[in-house]
Design goal:
The chain has 265 residues and is of the alpha/beta class. The protein is built from 9 helices and 9 strands. The protein binds adenosine-5'-triphosphate (ATP) and magnesium ion (MG). The site of adenosine-5'-triphosphate has 12 residues, from strand 2 and helix 1.
Length: 265
């Protein structure tokens, strides 16, 4: 299929008028309405908005875990289902969902089990080094801290070298210090692997610190109300967190969210 002139083929995600309605009759829930979003390769996009505004639903639509009820959605120029078959994306959720009876290395190898043994062991080792857990390959998940478990989940998600990494509140359960460390880790991995990331968060500072653009969503039915370019220099580090530009962007995103809350009232 050829892309139309207004829809460049190089986009990683291209949503046009995407809507999602769950159920029917009295139980009908309109989760998303008229979502237009174009994501370029190597962007880091955060989705932020009030609980229930459809952030996870949007991520799940992109990841082919559910289907839109209206509009069109393309991932790397393809139907999301085809993108999933082509292993174009990796996913990380709030809970690491590791298998307790498999070692760390065996967990990372899990999605690779259709590959030949040598390649998948090698790849798992490489991914664990990337998340700086090389020494823990033989440990079991229950022997690791929450932050380490989440790094294993990231290694597993990256095992297929996805072009798109989908992360749904991956650091939500971590303490503040671990969370800040993980934010820097994920930015380092993002730079080293050249992946595009879509990241759902409730934390305004986290969204600003990580992202190239912050997508602010309105309450149900979820719509995109603002798209804020952060424009902060890379690499981002502790100095970034103390900078005036960072502070100003946090204020800008907070004000955009407040407008949503007022609109909802
Ligand atoms: N499988 C489903 N069946 C029916 N309704 C659903 C389903 N999944 C989500 N919803 C509804 O769609 C709306 C959006 O849910 P979603 O989980 O995407 O919100 P969210 O922005 O991720 O919220 P949170 O910040 O609390 O995680 C909610 O009203 C939710 O109840
Ligand atoms: Mg959610």
């Amino acid at each position: 299929m050829s892309a139309s002139p207004t829809q460049p083929a190089h986009l990683v995600v291209e949503a046009t008028g995407v809507g999602k309605v769950f159920g029917g009759g009295d139980g009908k829930v309109e989760a998303l309405r008229s979502i237009d979003l174009a994501i370029e390769p190597r962007e880091f996009i955060s989705l932020i908005g009030p609980s229930g505004c459809g952030k996870s639903t949007l991520l799940r639509l992109v990841g082919d875990l559910t289907n839109p009820t209206s509009g069109t959605l393309r991932v790397n120029g393809k139907d999301p289902h085809q993108a999933r078959l082509d292993r174009d994306y990796g996913m990380v959720f709030q809970k690491a969902t590791l298998l307790d009876w498999r070692t760390v290395a065996k967990n990372v190898e899990l999605p690779l089990e259709i590959m030949d043994v040598a390649a998948r062991q090698e790849r798992a080792r490489e991914m664990l080094q990337l998340v700086q857990l090389g020494e823990f390959a033989g440990h079991y998940p229950w022997q690791l801290s929450g932050g380490m478990q989440q790094r294993v989940a990231i290694a597993r998600a990256l095992a297929f070298r996805p072009s798109l990494l989908l992360m749904d509140e991956p650091f939500g359960a971590l303490d503040e210090m671990t969370r800040e460390l993980m934010q820097q880790e994920v930015l380092r991995i993002w730079r080293e692997t050249h992946t595009t990331v879509i990241f759902v968060t409730h934390s305004i500072p986290e969204a600003v610190f990580l992202s190239t653009r912050v997508v602010v969503m309105s309450p149900r039915p979820g719509r995109i109300s603002d798209v804020i370019t952060t424009g902060l220099a890379h690499p981002r580090n502790e100095d970034t967190r103390e900078s005036r530009d960072y502070y100003d962007k946090i204020t800008e995103v907070r004000e955009a969210l407040r407008r949503q809350e007022r609109g909802a009232g």
